[in-house]
Amino acid sequence: MDKPFYGGQAVLEGVMMRGRRHMAVAVRAPEGNIVVHDEALTSAIYTSRWSRWPFIRGAIALWDSLVLGTRVLMFSANVAVGEAAGGLEAASGAIWLTVLFSLALATALFFVLPVLLVGVVDTYLRSSFLSNLVEKVFRLTLIVGYIGFVGFLPDIKRVFAYHGAEHKAVNAYEDGAPLEVAAVARYSTAHPRCGTAFLLVVVVVSFAAFLLLGQPPLLWRIASRIVLIPIVAGVAYELIRLGGKHRRHPVVKVLLAPGMALQALTTREPDSAQLEVAISALKRVVALEEEAEEGAVLSAPAVPAVS
Fold first, then answer.
1. How many angstroms separate the Cα of 33 from the Cα of each of 26, 36, 278?
2. Cα–Cα nearest to 289, from 272, 306, 305
């Protein structure tokens, strides 16, 4: 029987891990101890039948990573600066504004801006294929350039190290290795279900989808990019999930190679203390998931996370 998928997110001085029904976040406090918080994922976005539908669940996973990720990030920030650690803050107005602002900024930067850049030279591009190819190059350049730039910031470097620790812990778990620092340290900082690889797949899928639309006028082109984001995310999610499930197949390894290589920009080699934090989060969520499986029958499983 296949092991369940676990995925997560690096946060400030910590790692969040989530499964089908639970999440856990572990953060290193200034005193040196590890603060761990967990909670059940009980809202309709996790438990309803439609949240498991192929292609729909990809858009749900994207939205979930924004909302839950923002809540977890605020929790980790409080712990990292030494404030008392309570539970995760509910989705308040401040969190919704943060999520919407982040979504709008990402849409403008990675979907609208490439269209505007193409618009400058589009009159010289006589084929829709070439026009969409140039747009794809602009989009990929912006994504890689942005990730590369923020990776030079000291605080982001530490987050990227926790990202590497998250991947190492999940890789070790999926390989059946003991969740101990010495064993986990031997594994790769890259993982096929990583959100960085997801971005690359989004670029490829969007190129194929937008190519079908030809070379429309500028305003229609911008509108189509925005409207198709959930569809593109849904298809990309299914491809990432499928690739992760069959990642040992030789052909799949070749297809996954660009996304695995791109993760060198968003991961760093973690130290033993960072690995300990990632292991703490994963152990907690695995224990909760196993208890749920052995206990009372719960509602239908939710969408597994992209790490």
1. 10, 10, 13
2. 305
The answer to whether residue 164 scores a pLDDT higher than 70 is yes
Burial class (CB in 10 A: 0-12, 13-18, 19+), 217: exposed
Cβ atoms of residues 240 and 197 within 8 Å: yes
Query: Could you tell me the pTM of the whole model?
Result: 0.85
Q: Which residues pair with 119 in a beta bridge?
A: none
- Cβ neighbour number for residue 2 with a 10 Å cutoff: 6
The helix-helix angle for 250-262 and 229-245 (nearest 10°) equals 120
Whether 137 contacts 210, CB under 8 Å: no
State the Cα–Cα distance between residues 253 and 162, nearest whole angstrom. 25
Give the side-chain half-sphere CA count within 13 A for 107. Answer: 18
Integer angstrom CA distances of residue 38 from 21, 22, 293: 11, 7, 17
The more confident residue out of 57 and 215 is 215
Q: How far apart are CA 44 and CA 52, in angstroms?
A: 11
Secondary-structure breakdown of the chain: helix, strand, coil percentages, each rounded to the nearest 5: 65, 10, 30
pLDDT band at residue 142, thresholds of 50, 70 and 90?
A: very high
Strand, helix or coil at 181? Answer: helix
Among the residues of 54-180, which ranges form H helices? 56-80, 93-107, 113-121, 128-150, 154-174
Q: Give dist(CA 243, CA 29) in Å, integer.
A: 36
Which letter does DSSP use for residue 268 in this model?
-
By the 10 Å C-beta count (0-12 exposed, 13-18 middle, 19+ buried), 39 is classed as: middle
How many helices and strands in the chain, by DSSP H and E?
12, 4
How many residues are there in the chain? 307
For residue range 221-252, list pLDDT tens digits in order. 999 999 998 888 888 888 888 887 888 888 88
